[in-house]
Amino acid sequence: MKKIVVLGCGLVGRVMAEDLSQTYKVTSVDISQKNLDNLKSESISKICKDVSDPAVLNQIIKDCDLVVGALPGFMGYETMKRVIMAKKNIVDISFYPEDPFGLDKLAIDNNVIAIMDCGVAPGMGNIIFSHHDKMMKISDYECLVGGLPKKREWPFEYQAVFSPIDVIEEYIRPARYVQNKSLIIKEALSDTELVEFEEIGTLESWNSDGLRTLIQTMSHVPNMIEKTLRYPGCVEYLKVLRECGYFSYDPVEINGNKIRPIDLTSKLLFPKWQMKEGDEDFTIMRIKISGKEKGEDVEYTYTLLDRFKDDTISMARTTGYTCTAVANLVLDNKFVKKGISPPEFLGNHFNFVNDYLTERDVIYKVSKR
Fold first, then answer.
1. Residue 304: which of 128, 93, 69, 117 has the closest Cα?
2. Handedness of CA 107, 99, 283, 267 (dihedral sign)
3. What rounded mean pLDDT belongs to the chain?
4. Pairwise CA distance, residues 47 & 49, whole Å
5. Which of 38, 45, 236, 353 has most Cβ atoms within 10 angstroms of its Cβ?
6. Cα 348–70–145 angle (5° rounding)?
7. What is the pLDDT of residues 115-125, one digit of tens each?
8. Residue 95 CB neighbours (<10 A)
């Protein structure tokens, strides 16, 4: 039986470990014993250690067939680099800010398959995009996506599944999109729009830096944009915090002690954003792909509305099962490309990933006009 090490046992890492444990021998690793204690499957081995220590990481992964990364974004790039240096294949969901292609040569030289950003968006959205790019000439790609709590609570009407610092990064990192083949850079939280969704109602969209590798790998597509979705009014609170410096990484001195405002903000916000017992969420995504197919104008629309079910939060399922689907492709030798691969390199495997998600009741509806 093949051996998998899942790094990180938060809300998403736990779902991935349990899904993979149905077929493989899984070891889950986390710095928090409390997180590990939340695992339901007794077949999963548990290791409570800090994998930011290279010697600890190397010891844990030395005998495994695949590493699955579910660590906070600030740890993602360095961890992937160390896994590659250990000559282990890796499939990862951490949303790290560094350029992943900086590790491409290292991965090729070490004969390693390294797939990053394997979540919802980036992730499944990229796979859908690439799938259609092989069949048509795309002129426009738009992705609207968000994970939201079912219950709206003042003031933020938001709960975080991921590391709070990773979430805040989305509010401060400049947003990039492509318009008429030109790269446009705007501040995050800009160009807010109200968008209507069936069953959900009105949500607010705003520019975020979600295109990531698509800007480079899909440069032949003239118009590409991704926007994040939140409940209306949320953006105004976030802009106030950002403009007042609460998201800053620059240390300030208080009573002789230096502290980064973002660290304090994360500490204060996490209890407000944390999902509690009985809380439920939903994931919503709408992708529009338009262009020419067999000489005719076409537009494909993919919609995902996934809700909390089976005592599992939606964002963990929609993110986690995309990643475990790709992990299976690697383990079954169906994806063998060495080097760094963003999810759009898996367009040929759209049907497999989509079927895998459908079997787990994550349903992408598609329409064409």
1. 128
2. positive
3. 95
4. 6
5. 353
6. 60
7. 999 999 999 99
8. 24
- At position 270, the amino acid (one-letter code) is F
Rounded Cα distance between 264 and 231, Å, is 25
With a cut of 90, say whether residue 165 has pLDDT above it.
no
pLDDT value of residue 95? 87
Distance (Å, rounded) from C-alpha 193 to C-alpha 203? 8
> Tell me, what's the pLDDT at 172?
92
Q: How far apart (Å, rounded) are the C-alpha atoms in residues 347 and 230?
A: 28
C-alpha span between 227 and 140 (Å, rounded):
14
Query: What are the pLDDT digits (tens) for 64-113?
Result: 999 999 999 999 999 999 999 999 999 999 989 899 999 999 999 999 99
What is the domain partition of the chain in residue ranges? 3-119+315-368, 124-307
Beta-carbon count within 10 A of 336 CB:
9
Which of the following CATH numbers is that of domain 3-119+315-368: 3.40.50.720, 2.60.120.10, 3.40.50.300, 1.25.60.10?
3.40.50.720
Structure tokens at 35: 């997180």
Q: Distance of CA 286 to CAs 19, 124, 367, Å? A: 26, 12, 11
- What is the percent of the chain with per-residue pLDDT over 90, rounded to a whole number? 87
The CA-based angle 262-76-208, given to 5 degrees, is: 60
Query: What is the CATH topology of the domain spanning 124-307?
Result: Dihydrodipicolinate Reductase; domain 2 (3.30.360)
